[in-house]
Amino acid sequence: MSLHAQKNSKQSPNKEAETTLNKEEQKLLSYIDANLPRAIEMLKESVNINSGTLNIEGVKKVGALFAKEFEAAGLQTHWVSMPDSIKRAGHLVAMTPMAKNAQGIKKPKGKKLFLIGHLDTVFEPDMPENPFTMLNDSTATGQGANDMKGGDVVIIMALQALNAQGLLKDAAITAYLTGDEEHAGYPREVSRGDFIETAKQSEIALAFEGANGLNKVATARRGASGWQLNVTAKTGHSSGVFTENAGYGAIYEAARIVNTFRETLSTEKYLTFNPGVFIGGSDMQYEEAKSSGTAIGKTNIISPNAVVTGDLRFLTEQQKIDARATMQKIVDQNLNGTKATIRFVDGIPSMAPTEGNEKVMEVISGVTTSMGMGATTAGDPGSRGAGDISYVAQYMDCIDGLGASGRGAHAPGETINLKEFPVLIKRAALTIYRLTR
């Protein structure tokens, strides 16, 4: 399957564009074409290992598989273990000798790169199996095929291609594959502590979450946080509701607050907030650890309690701060006979759009143009949730969406597009090459 510099399955490679690739770059593409069957086999082997976030042994097994492949590319690997209390497998780190010896006298060529992937999937062992299966000559299905074992293979094959041409000798590259991206362990200061500190030694982060076509990358990703609304109220016979004496009850106050959130903030671009649990009644219990609860509601009793939990997604830290301030003001304007409080919980920070991110995208656009695929542009940040790259976005320039492509991530029957797969490996190899010259 040779898809050298191909924009899509209906187009032939642009032979004129090949003249803009130097000899080293052309050799990289030839290596990837020649080794594509091995890339597919690596993908198949990794997909057929269940590595749901909570399957600690499965995550470690995928890590061991990929460690051998990184070592075949000349990188040195080590495993970052998590304390037992975190209940997560840990992370795989692979470094070129130049990155490993960060304090060495010899300086690396080009930029110091931090490549991000993850070993885990959302599919735990008790879910229905979905082994790697070819659906047709260009599409395969399997758990985590594109999110993100396909992206991990893109990283590995790009590095193996570079190593085969002797192009990693003077490059400072760290690949960091986390073991719990889909459900990061708490506290995050522990589960992401080494990840962040290691990243700070680099200058540019490239993340290999799913690609959105061949000509889009993410220069920004929204962050995610949570909130919990607690409402208490006077209780009594329902015949007195709305009166000065009895007030409005907890359910009316919770409904007022949530609806005012919607009326006030729902039109703001890139800002979303979704109530996931809404419980109220004359006798109510909410279990925060399980995000579930029970309620008994007699219609002739004014509800004394209500709880609402939700998420808050934002593009910049300032947008999050401003939204929280607005929400707090709404919460403070209580209906008669009620009292409401709101608690905000930080989750994953945002990867805000920056000039530096745009400049890295220009390098990638130069790559895709040289490959005959046309220019690369920024995707809509509203179409992506939060990811590991967001933890380090404040420290360096960042690009995401450089991994495999496909459909149905996080759902049974997830697929990977194998026609675009080699093109995306080539894009990654050329991008790393140009950034490290």
Please give a structural write-up:
With 437 residues, this protein is an alpha+beta fold. It has two domains: 15-221 and 351-435, Aminopeptidase (3-Layer(aba) Sandwich), CATH 3.40.630; 224-348, Alpha-Beta Plaits (2-Layer Sandwich). The chain is 33% helix and 22% strand. It has helices at 15-18, 23-34, 36-47, 56-72, 97-100, 145-164, 188-191, 193-199, 250-265, 317-332, 355-370, 421-435, and strands spanning 76-80, 91-95, 113-118, 133-136, 139-141, 173-178, 204-207, 216-217, 223-233, 272-281, 283-287, 292-296, 305-314, 338-348, 377-378, 397-399, 406-407, 415-417. The chain has a six-stranded mixed beta sheet, with helices on both faces. A four-stranded antiparallel beta sheet has the order 4-5-18-17, with helices on one face. The chain has a four-stranded antiparallel beta sheet with strand order 10-13-9-14, with helices on one face. A hairpin with a 2-residue loop joins strand 4 and strand 5 (139-141). Helix 6 (145-164) crosses helix 12 (421-435). The two termini are 29 Å apart. The relative contact order is 0.19.
Task: Give a concise summary.
With 437 residues, this protein is an alpha+beta fold.
Features:
single chain; 437 residues; alpha+beta; Aminopeptidase; Alpha-Beta Plaits; 2 domains; 6-stranded mixed beta sheet; 4-stranded antiparallel beta sheet; 12 helices; 18 strands; disordered N terminus
